[in-house]
Amino acid sequence: IGFILLIGGIGVQTFSCSSVDIEPPPPPSAGENSSSSGLQSSSSSDGVSSSSSIPSGSVFCQIGIVCSVISIEACTMLNGVEVPSCETLSSSSDAFSSSSDASSSSANVGTGLCEGFVEGTLREHYGKDKPQFCDERDGQKYVYVTIGEQTWMAENLNYDASGSVCYGDNLANCNIYGRLYNWSAAIIACPPDWHLSSYIEWTDLTDYVGADAMTKLKAVNGWEYQEISGNGTDNYGFSALPGGERYASGDICTKDGAIRNSNGDFCAVNTTGFWWSATELNTNIAYRKVMFSVDEAHLDYHWKTYSYYVRCVKD
Question: What is the pTM of this model?
Answer without folding.
Answer: 0.71
